[in-house]
Each structure stands twice: as structure tokens, then as C-alpha cells.
Request: fold
Amino acid sequence: MNQKLYRLLECVFLLSIFLSIGLHELNERSRFSLLNEKTVESAAFRSQPVTEDMISFIQPLNDPGEILGIYWLESGFIKKTRTEWYSKDFFKKAKQTWSLNPAWESYSAACCAIWDDLEYFPVPESSNEVKAEVSYVDSWMYERNYGGTRGHEGTDIMASENVRGFYPVVSMTDGVVLHKGWLEQGGYRIGITAPGGAYFYYAHLDSYANLEIGDTIKAGQLLGFMGDTGYSKVEGTTGNFPVHLHVGIYLTDTGKEISVNPYPALRYLESRKIKCAYERG
Reply:
């Protein structure tokens, strides 16, 4: 009787080990499947979920794209906080695993395109006594109704003083001017293609700096001034909303135009503001 019981317990023990190994293997395969050729197009990736702790970790870095790409895969594209994530050694080891996935190269390139060219917050800080504050929230996919119901594909940087032509707007990256001119929804806008391939979109401008399509620009270079243009087919229309800057970030290398949430990138750039003297007209 004791021998039978022993064998039964032995079988149960071995079965539990095999189940544990199987579940671990299943979990690893499931986690590995997060990365595929469609990952960059997913709503989870496009929302760019980043905790404030992770923002603080990457702020000193000039090339945070790859680290964030690994962070999202490790976290399952959910905002999470784990102490071991705030270590370059952790990301180095994790990369060894994720880089075995055939989709890694294109995924990593997309992450770097969004993040590694970022240099300056798009609205400078006042260096004199003139008050010129801005604010913004994570409004990704908030409902918008002009021209039909849709999700908000950007972040609105709001002016504390509702004065058009007062707040300068600078380029967040180096790049080339791809688009300039009037759009019904965006008003006077300018679009910059950064070196990594991402497209940075600045809308509702009041006026432009002396720039033309095809011009090469540097990060921090003046693009124009914040305004309230747009929401009309009639060029020059103003006053349909308060003065603000709409910032959008898009990926185009996949053959599709994919919008991603700019809010985390703006949080990353919060400590990188150019200072300039504001002047009232």
C-alpha cells in the first residue's frame, strides 16, 4: 500500500513538473507572438503606453527608441512598473531574445524612427518676464466631430494666453519640409520628415517662418507661430477653437500612414525646451 501511494505521489510530482514546463513554454510562445509584422499597426503600439517612471529613465538618453520597444514587448503594451526595467543591462539581455524574432528589425526601426530623432519640445520657454505657459494632456483618440466622428490622432498643446501669433513653434527634430500650406482640418500646417523616416506634423499655425517645401531644417529651428486656423475649406479661417498647437507623429515606411500617440514623446521632451524672449505684438 505504501509503495502504491509512493508511486502515485511520484507520478503526481512528475506530472506537475511537466505541466509547469508546458505552461511556461506556452507563456513564452504567447509572449513572443506579441512581435509580428502587424505589431506596429496595432492599437496597443500606436498608443505608446509609457509610465512616468520609464519617462524619467529614458529622459537622459538620446536614443531611447530600442529600449522603449523592448519595454513594450516585456510589458505586453500595458503601463507597468518593475524595478529591473530601469537597467540598461536588463534591456541588453532582453534584446538577445527579442532579436531572434523575424519581425524585430522592422519593429525596432519603427520605434527608433519615432523616438531617436527627438531633440526639443516644440514650444520654447520664455526667457524674459513675459508669461507664456502651455499645457497638454493625453488626448489620444478622444472623439472629434468636425467632418465626421473620428479619434484624435495627436496631442494639443494649449496656450495659457489665447493670442494668435504669440507663441513660437520650433521643430522637434532635424528633417526636411515635406508639406506646407492649408488643410481643412489642420489649417496652416507644416510637415517635417525626420532622418529616421517618421513624419512630424504641426497644425493650426497662425503664420510660417521663411521655409519652403524641400528645405532642410535643424531641430529647434523656428517653423512659425501658434494660431487657431482650420476647420474650414476657406483658407485663412480662424476662431473655431482656442489658440493651440496640434502635434502629430506618423510612420510611413510600412506603406501605410500610421499615426502614433505623441503625448509620451512630448513628456520625454519636457526637460528639453529652448529658451527665447517672448514679445507682445
User: Anything to note?
Assistant: The first strand starts at residue 125 and ends at 126. Confidence is low (pLDDT under 50) at residues 18-29.
